[in-house]
Amino acid sequence: MKEFDYVIIGGGCAGLSLAYELDLHDKLKNKTLAIIDPRKNYERDKTWSFWKFNNHNFEDCVIKSWKDFSINFPQKTKFVRCDQTPYQSIDSGLFYKKIINKLRLNKNIQFFKNVNEINMENGFIFNSVSTTNHSKSQLWQHFMGFEIETSKNFFDEEIFNLMDFNCEQNGEVHFFYTLPFSKTRALVETTWLSKLNRNELLNYEEQLKDYVNNNLNIKKYKIIYSEKGAIPLFQQKNIKRANEMYIGTAGGMTRLSTGYTFLNIQDQSKYIRENIDNINNVEIFKINKKYNLLDNIFLNVLSNHPEKMPNIFFKLFKAPPKTIINFLSNKSSFFEDLSIIWKLPKLIFLKNLFK
Fold first, then answer.
1. Closest Cα partner for 234 from 265, 259, 213, 267?
2. Which pTM was predicted?
3. Which domains are assigned to the chain?
């Protein structure tokens, strides 16, 4: 079996972002890299969205950027301007194509479908596949989206809808999410923040068709793409082995209260690239501990009082746009954190502080 200096297990967003970062900065000129992923083809399977704070490697994979968004609550709508940090969506198909085409040019990089094809005893391993025993009784952000196309102009492509709570909650937290890519094309997603042990919440297609027909009032459309996923909103507890580092969601790059991961992966990839020559001795890249503390309190409230969450989100977005976006994107200062906390109902959060 072949040996490599570096091995990436999992050729998804985290694994490919890291490989691209290393290759782009000539860190694989005299090193070999194996990427292990079982998929036969790389095709669009996800849409990654985030508020843009800094330049990143994938501007040419962005489908659309917005400078305004809305949040719908029963009997009220909140409009928010985000021109300083526009919201971007990346097409995973373009992302895969760009990276794979670049990596194929490097003879020091090889792709494999199975870990048994190579010897991993002596190389350093970057693992994006968690060993955590995932349970349906834990909290997840689970969703399905349709990208629809209408025959006539319908969407305002200059503003996206981050959350629409005007839907059945069924004792959980449920909202819809709409990204208009043009006047005739948009991604509409049904999103739940709940456990995965209630089958009656998983009829995503029915939810989407009902929302498009009755909430958006679109009767004629065609579905040109669909995606489905579940993001764990709990800490990953992996088995740590020598010469191994976990990356991506497995490495704690998912913000627990929001599910945002893409930019955290890019920051982690850059950190690893900068420290690759001493990778066995560097500290693990982590999201600031304060966010884990605040997110755990937030998720305790969400689990114990889901019926209160639409109103809590409404109060949350009363903060200045820059403050709330900084907070959701792990960029907030201590004073911005305090201003966010001040907007929230104090008693219920204090009761859940030590749960």
1. 259
2. 0.93
3. 2-61+91-132+236-278 (3.50.50.60), 140-230 (3.30.70), 289-351 (no CATH)
